[in-house]
Amino acid sequence: MQHMIFDAHLHIIDPAFPLVSNDGFLPDAFTVDDYVGQTAALGVGGGAVVSGSFQSFDQSYLITALAALGPTFVGVTQLPYSVSDEDLLLLASHGVRAVRFNLRRGGSESSAYLCEFAHRVYDLLGWHIEIYADCKSLTDLAGKLCKLPAISIDHLGLSKEGLPLLYQLAESGAKVKATGFGRVDFAVSQAIKRLFEINPDALMFGTDLPSTRSPRAFNPVDIEIIGNALGDVAAKKVLWDNAAAFYRLGV
């Protein structure tokens, strides 16, 4: 059975807007038209456009992409802690719902501000914080992360070594993105089963398109992996319900 999908993690890369080289790397273009064409057969009914390290604090590409994709798509951006409340409110009016901390590749605010920023945007706007990091590197932050009002972890936490902490975070209420299966070093289906057992509301599927710098790009079989691991009813939660609720679709 094909479920409608909320794609909780996608990137739009439009060279018409500023791009910042990251360790000498600039990604290939992946426009809104490219995304819509590549996902036409998947049943995508909404999603979250996520800012990459190469977009740093630029908001122009994101606002344009969200306007083109329509009201069922929201934004996850990178911002300096010094951003004004007025600018946060303006971004919210364009559909932005979260701030990303890219601790793996940079381009975002320092982790030193993570907890303060998490409380600030949640209290002001109901936003959450998204973290791109190898979970094994988050041990020192674990106690603080478990107490934050709303967070999600990208790409299943990336490493087998980080899974115990990922499971701890999911138990405390963190969301986990079932994305980037080609980026991890463990059996995805087993981790998905365990995460769903710990917290049925935690997992959110995303394509991770265009899978920049991933050893293996997204393939529609990744959706089948979720269905085969969890069954039809649980898969619906992972493919749509959990993310649509977390990103406050329609709010």
TrEMBL record:
It comes from the Bacteria. Signal peptide: none annotated. InterPro entries: Amidohydro-rel, Aro_Compnd_Degr_Hydrolases. Residues 7-249 form the Amidohydrolase-related domain. Pfam families: Amidohydro_2. PANTHER family: BARREL METAL-DEPENDENT HYDROLASE, PUTATIVE (AFU_ORTHOLOGUE AFUA_1G16240)-RELATED. This is Amidohydrolase family protein.
